[in-house]
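Onboarding guide, step 5: your first structure request.
Type a short instruction followed by the sequence, for example:

Predict the 3D structure of this protein.
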Amino acid sequence: MTATPLRSVRLGSVALRLRPRVLAVCLALAALVAAVLAVSLMVGDYPIALPDVVAALSGRGERLDVFFVREVRLPRALTATLVGAALGMAGAVFQSLSRNPLGSPDIIGFTAGASTGAVLTILVLGGGMLPTALGAMLGGVGTAVLVYLLAVRRGVQGYRLVLVGIGVSAMLSSVTHYLITRAELTDALTAQVWMVGTLNSREWSHVAAVGVGSAVLVPFLLRLGARLRLMEMGDDIARALGVPTQRTQSSALVAASALTGIAIAVSGPIAFVALAAPQLARRLTRADGTTLVASALMGAALLLCSDLVALRLLAPVQLPVGVVTTVVGGTYLVWLLYSEWRGGRA
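The system replies with C-alpha cells like these:
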C-alpha cells in the first residue's frame, strides 16, 4: 500500500503535519456520519421533516416532534455514533499491536471476556445498567491482561496474540453458555438478548456512560498513536527510536480494552465493527500505519448505517443491530480472508 505524502500546515505558532488524503477521508466520513444521523432522526413510524427536526432539537415546534427527536431518536443515534467510534478506534489499536488485520477484540477474546463478565453479573446480581456495565468492563480488561501475560515473550508477537486470544475466547464462550444453561428462564432470556447486541430503548444515561468513558480514553489513545505507528515497523526499530515498547503495548492494550468494555456495556457485544472499520479506513486513506481518527469515524458510520437498516428493514419490527453487523461483517471477513490468501499473507 502506497503512503500518501505529508504536508506541513501552520496555524499561527503551531505547525501540523497532515496527509491531505487522510484529512479528506476523515472529513468525508464525518459528513457521512452527520447525514446518517440526520436521517435517523427523520425516519420512523412517525416521520418528521428535516426543518421540524432542527426546530425540535432546539426545543421548538410540535410537542410530539420534540418528544420523538429529543427523547427517543437522538439518544439512540448518539449511542450508535459513540459506540461505533469506540469500537472502531479500539479495533485499530488491537490490529496495530498484533500487526494483523484479524487482531480485533471480536477475534482475540476481549469481547468474549466482556460478555462473560456481563452475563455473570446479570445472573448473579440480577442485571441493571451499572452492574452490567461494570461486569463487562472488568471482564474485558481482565481478559486483556490474561491474554497479554500469556502472549508476551520479549514483546507481543501478532500471531501469538491472535492464537492465544482465540483459545481464551473459546474457553470464555463455553463458560458463558454454561452459565446460561444453569440460569432461571427469565435470567437466561435477559442474558441471551443482551448477548445479541442491540440499541433498542437506549436513553440519555447510555449516551452519558459511553460519552464520559470515551472522553477519558480517546485522548489517551490518540497520544499513543505516534508510538503505535513506529512500533508497526518492528520493536527493535521502535526501541532504537526511543519508544518504550512494552510500556506502550500494555498501556494501549488496557486502554483499548476498557474502551471496548464501555462500548459493549451499553450495547452488548456488537460484532465485526471493530474488525472491519480499521481496515476499511486504512484502504480509503491509503495510510501506511494506524489511522485512529479515520477508524473511529468509519466505526461510527458503519454502526449508524447498520442501526438504520435494523430499524427500517422489517418495520415495524425492530431487529437487534448485532444481527445486521454480523451479516455484513461475516461477508467482510470472508472477503478479507480471501484477499489475504490471494496476497500470500495467510
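Each response can be followed by summary notes, for example: The chain has a mean pLDDT of 83.
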